[in-house]
Amino acid sequence: MSALTRAFGAAALAPDQRARVLAMSRLLEAWCPDQAYAAFVRHPAGDLLQPVAGMRRLQHGQIRRTSGGSDQGLNEHLATCTPTPLDTAASRCPDTPVLARLKAAAPDTQWQLVRAALPDGGDALFAIAEPVGADALAVAVMLAGVLQHITGAPDDPPALPEASLLWRDPCPGLLFNGRGDLVLENPAASALASQLALPGVHSLLPANHGALFRSAVQGVRSIAEVETDVADRILLWTYIPVADGRRVALRGRDATEQRRAARWSSRVDRIHRLITENTTDLISRHDRAGTFLYVSPASLQLLGRMPGELEGTTLSNLMAPAEREQQDADAKAALVERGFHTMTCRLRDAQGGYRWFEIAMRAIRDTYSGEIAEWVCISRDVTKRHRAEEETRRLAAIVAATTDLVLFSDARGSVLHFNRAAGDHLGLQHPLDSTIAVADLVAGNSREAFIQEALPTALRGGVWRGDLRLAGRGPDGSFPVSMVVMSHTGDDDALQYVSVIARDMSDREMREAQAREHQDELAHAARLSTMGELASGIAHEMNQPLASIMNYARACRNHLDRADTPDRDHLQDGLKRIDDRAQHAAQVIQRLRAFIRKDRRQITAVAVEPAVRSVIEMVAWEARRSGVRIDWTPPPRLPPVVADQVLLEQVLVNLIRNAIDASRDQDGNHDPRIWIDASHDDEADTVTIHVRDNGPGLDAHAVENLFEPFRSSKPEGVGLGLTISRSIVEQLGGTLGGEADVAGGMVFNVTLAVWTRGGEA
Question: What is the pTM (predicted TM-score) of this model?
Answer without folding.
Answer: 0.40
